[in-house]
Amino acid sequence: MPHENSVMHGLMQLLPWAAFDRLVAERGADADARGFSPRSHLVAMLYAQLSGAHSLREIEAGLTSHAARLYHLGATPAARSTLADANRDRDSGVFLALFQQMLRCLARDQRRKLAETTYLIDSTFMALPAHHARWAVFSANACGAKLHVIYDPDEDRPIYAAVSTANVNDITAAKEMPIQPGATYVFDLGYYDYGWWAGFEAKKCRIVTRFKCNTPLTFIAEQKLPEGSELLSDRIGLLPARLTKNRHNPMDKPVREIRLHNQSGKLLRILTNDLEASAQEIADLYLRRWAIELFFRWIKQTLRIRHFIGGSENAVRIQIATALIAFLLLRLAQATQTAVTSPLTFARLVRSNLMHRRPIQDLLRPPQIPNRQPINQLALL
User: Fold this and answer.
1) Of 30 and 81, which is predicted with more confidence?
2) In which domain, by residue range, is 254 found?
3) DSSP class of residue 369?
4) Are residues 318 and 234 in the same domain?
């Protein structure tokens, strides 16, 4: 039977190892490693995410049982104390930088016109055990971290990610995000900041968001809706010229308000700086926000990011970064085959076959039993 590498080996071949080694050298992340290399560290954390391991003990046992197959990855298993120390002490920026490097490579391969590009901005909260995550105190009885993401729904992947403590306001983290001139950005009420919006306007970006219920709008024109439209109104107006403390509102150009009821019957006031597109197009853009919620649910439930194996800030950042890398690896691997079209089914098949020797393209193939000659019982007597 011809030799076949494991499914894990096939996934690891999709990583830009040269870029990872360069990041390690630039950040000095291989110092004081107790013999546990950055490559072994990354493989261990990806194994944890892809296999669904819930504890350091489970990771140690799983990797030790497959030590021979780790050899072909240039990695070695480690004791749980060594892995815990590495999660606490090794620079988490190496792992997040590797994720960003992978995103840049994908962006070069999948160029689109910015006028046709829509990005979704949002964050998600991840609870942490209060007894050993005091660095992430959110309230009297809760600790947590936030993952801030710009998501491309057409490519079904994030294009930017950052991690903060839960008490960091969404708009504070958003001001550090890169803005692509000419693109469309969709976000919700957590990013209600006229100055930030004006930055999009200056870069000729289209924004789609939602009015706060108490935001007044001075109407200057009302546009006719198509006959039979479920939308309630389409009006153009001006935001308040003055803000608190008599500050000038930088978002002083006309904006548009489109009103509609969502599926639960709630009235939504959609805001956009696009005065030309159809009202239905703007409404549909805002409703696309659901895609980023599905992404957050996917990484929490499928990659088990709800359970953290370390409580230090560095360990949490490393685990979130490797979960995002695992997400990209699964998407890249799924694109190499056509038999499994569902991302969830593909992820489950990878988990079930992670250390089995078979190509990623043949996850649905029944395992092959090697041909063996029948034993002559009489010859043994």
Assistant:
1) 81
2) 188-283
3) P
4) no
pTM of the predicted structure, to 2 decimals = 0.86
DSSP states of 19-88 as a string? Answer: HHHHHHHHHTTTTT-TT--HHHHHHHHHHHHHHT--SHHHHHHHHHHTHHHHHTTT-----HHHHHHHHH
Q: Residues 271, 348: one domain? A: no
Q: Are 173 and 148 in contact (CB under 8 A)?
A: yes
| 172 in a structural domain | no
The total number of structural domains in the chain stands at: 2
For the segment 271-288, what is each residue's pLDDT rounded down to a tens digit? 999 999 999 999 999 999
Residues 11 and 61 in one domain: yes
Measured at the CA of 59, the angle between CA 339 and CA 20, to 5 degrees, comes to 70
User: Are residues 86 and 30 part of one domain?
Assistant: yes
Q: pLDDT tens, 326-351?
A: 999 999 999 888 888 898 999 999 99
The answer to the question of residue 196 being in a domain is yes
Identify whether 331 is part of a domain. Answer: yes
Query: Inter-axis angle of helices 38-51 and 56-65, to 10 degrees?
Result: 100
pLDDT band at 70 (very low <50, low <70, confident <90, very high): confident
Q: According to the model, what pLDDT value does residue 256 have?
A: 95
Same domain, 279 and 315: no
pLDDT value at position 333? 92
